[in-house]
Design goal:
- This protein is mostly beta strands and 398 residues long.
- It folds into three domains: 111 residues, Jelly Rolls, CATH 2.60.120; 35 residues, Laminin (Ribbon), CATH 2.10.25; 181 residues, Jelly Rolls (Sandwich).
- Helix content is 1%, strand content 40%.
- It has one helix and 28 strands.
- Strand 4 and strand 5 form a beta hairpin.
- The protein is globular.
- The termini are far apart.
């Protein structure tokens, strides 16, 4: 499988192969090769349908039915490859050649790549295309960059300050405490403090401990499994207790939560019922939904266990087996390579659940979680020792 974007005789071309036939899309207009014009390119695929958009003019085409997943398992190359022999002969029209020109603002699955010296895995023969100390993202929040003798300066929009316009004026005198984040509230000319795990209060000034985690929205816990390297990932298991008065919400996401190629096991609520989604390397799993009865708003604790035995999935709710399905009888992928990362309640602040999960779940979890156990561990996960924000003591109050 592959997906390749290239220039062919002045036209932009997208080629992708999902394991069967290569699909080719080409723009109607040529790219102006004057070296002074920036072009906006959007390309990719949704299922088996590819799309190619150059400066707002869009074309689409579908691959054969049944071919829906891009299975590459390779590095991502920009501008060229480490060896031209790596390029599939069907990915280009002529002999492969490296790109000559400038590239900026690369966004893959809603995540921008940092085109710096240190962030990529490797590279060669790449220089500074802007030619000045400004670049295109030196000044944040739509600030304007000016080259100075001593370097650069930023002219900031009205509500932003700092050398790179990185700070909201509403947070310039904030009183947010230890490790807290200041969240500007422009409409009220104020701010709120997002408290780091283990802190609470208006300014996150009070130290807290808890065994029951209370999620209030815009909350998350990110737990890194210290035993991940020793796990047998063909036999995964997670169990926990939860209670909620909401009909939508992501309870757990076992996985890196970075792009659609990462394995994951997800538990959440959709329309008041339980929803389980598994990806073992190819998004082939149809969501498992238990619609027997609603588990929202009954003010009860519910105990859920999800067991993955290679491609067989069992789901227990309140110790009753409610779902049992083989998600891939062909056994193409059998291990849950989740990277040792577990998210509870949502993702990092600023990352929307519906975007990260590509619509599988709509909102952050609002409610309480306790008694989390991974695999067959004898001890419960100590959520207090993880990373997180806006999570409070669920032992107190409602």
């Amino acid at each position: 499988d592959f997906l390749c974007i290239s220039l062919v005789n002045g036209f932009l071309q997208l080629r992708y192969n999902l394991g069967d036939k290569t699909v080719i899309l080409q723009t109607f207009q040529k790219v102006q090769a004057n070296g002074n014009t920036w072009h906006s390119l959007k390309a990719g695929r949704a299922g088996n349908e590819g799309y190619l958009d150059l400066d707002g003019i869009n074309i689409t085409q579908k691959a054969r039915p049944g071919m829906n997943a891009l299975d590459t398992h390779t590095d991502f190359f920009v501008g060229g490859v480490s060896s031209l022999n790596l390029v599939n002969s069907m990915a280009v029209e002529n002999e492969p050649t490296s790109f000559t020109g400038c590239i900026r603002e690369i966004v893959i699955n809603n995540r921008e790549l940092k085109l710096t010296v240190t962030d990529p895995k490797g590279g060669a023969n790449v220089g500074d295309c802007d030619g000045t100390v400004c670049g295109y993202t030196v000044c944040k929040n739509n600030g304007t960059c000016q080259v100075e003798n001593s370097g650069f300066s930023c002219s900031c929009p009205q509500e932003w300050i700092g050398s790179t316009c990185e700070q909201s004026i509403h947070c310039s005198q904030n009183r947010c405490g230890s490790q807290a984040l200041c969240i500007p509230q422009p409409t009220s000319f104020s701010y709120i403090c997002a408290c780091a795990l283990g802190w609470s209060g208006k300014y996150c000034e009070s130290k807290i401990k808890f065994f029951i985690a209370k999620f209030v929205g815009n909350s998350y816990i990110k737990y890194t499994d210290p035993y991940y390297g020793k796990r047998d990932l063909q036999y995964s298991r997670i169990s926990l207790n939860f209670t909620t008065n909401q009909t939508e919400g992501l309870i757990v996401w076992m996985g890196k939560g970075e792009d659609e190629d990462n394995d994951f096991l997800a538990i959440g609520l959709a329309n008041g019922t339980l929803k389980i989604v598994i990806n073992l390397g190819e998004r082939i799993s149809v969501p498992l939904i238990h619609s027997k009865y609603s588990i929202c708003c009954d003010e009860k604790w519910h105990f859920i266990t999800v067991v993955q035995n290679q491609t067989c999935i069992k789901v227990y709710l309140d110790e009753e087996l409610i779902l049992f399905e083989d998600i891939d009888p062909q056994r193409k992928y059998t291990a849950l390579n989740y990277g040792g990362i577990c998210y509870f309640g949502g993702f990092e602040i600023g990352r929307k659940v519906n975007i990260v999960t590509t619509g599988l779940f709509q909102k952050e979890f609002i409610g309480k979680i306790k008694d989390v156990v991974l695999f067959q561990d004898s001890k419960k996960v100590q959520l207090m020792k993880a990373e997180g924000y806006n999570v409070y003591n669920g032992n107190q109050g409602n």
